[in-house]
Amino acid sequence: MFEFLSNHMRDAQGRLDSTRGLLCGLGAGVAEAVVVVCPMETIKVKFIHDQTSPNPKYRGFFHGVREIVREQGVKGTYQGLTATVLKQGSNQAIRFFVMTSLRNWYTGDNPNKPMNPLITGVFGAIAGAASVFGNTPLDVIKTRMQGLEAHKYRNTWDCGLQILRKEGLKAFYKGTVPRLGRVCLDVAIVFIIYDEVVKLLNKVWKTD
């Protein structure tokens, strides 16, 4: 989705500036949230909460999904959609903004300048770290909205207000350190693999 959007927003020299990179990342994040992330994250969070409860009711993955759909309908797999769209949209917007900025700085006036995988990995890790510090509060709200106790919140805004009133600002940054380690590696690896796959494909046929 990012490549689809960015191919329509590059200038005559094939460059993508940071602002357009941010907008393309935002679009990619929103699409990702609606099509993939929200249902998968909702199911994952429900399973984690169920398995840590005194009397787990889901016997396995398929049984759990079947029970969620039977009790709550398909809507049950789309809890916290607004929070997920906000989280994932801002997530990818930050990552691609930082990555595009760093790429443009490194390549200078030559957008076709090759990048060493190590450099790509370092830039990816920096982009990942920026996204963690930038949107961990939204991730906390999203997780609460998708859990088994989501019924306590009227909507995304109410969830955020309740967390602030009852637990304070620090609650919005719970899990930052472990998430930082995972996300930095995750984003670094994704960008390295993507760049190397594109290089390989370019040997077979030209890709934009």
From TrEMBL:
Q: Where are the Solcar repeats?
A: 19-105, 115-200
Q: Major location, coarse class?
A: mitochondrion
Q: Where in the cell is it found?
A: Mitochondrion membrane
Q: Which GO terms describe its molecular function?
A: citrate secondary active transmembrane transporter activity
Q: Name one GO cellular component term.
A: mitochondrial membrane
InterPro entries tied to this protein:
MCP_dom_sf, MCP_transmembrane, TXTP-like
What reactions does this protein catalyze?
citrate(out) + succinate(in) = citrate(in) + succinate(out); D-threo-isocitrate(in) + citrate(out) = D-threo-isocitrate(out) + citrate(in); phosphoenolpyruvate(in) + citrate(out) = phosphoenolpyruvate(out) + citrate(in); citrate(out) + (S)-malate(in) = citrate(in) + (S)-malate(out)
Q: Name one GO biological process term.
A: mitochondrial citrate transmembrane transport
Report the Gene3D superfamilies cross-referenced here.
Mitochondrial carrier domain (1.50.40.10)
Mind telling me what this protein is named? Answer: Tricarboxylate transport protein, mitochondrial
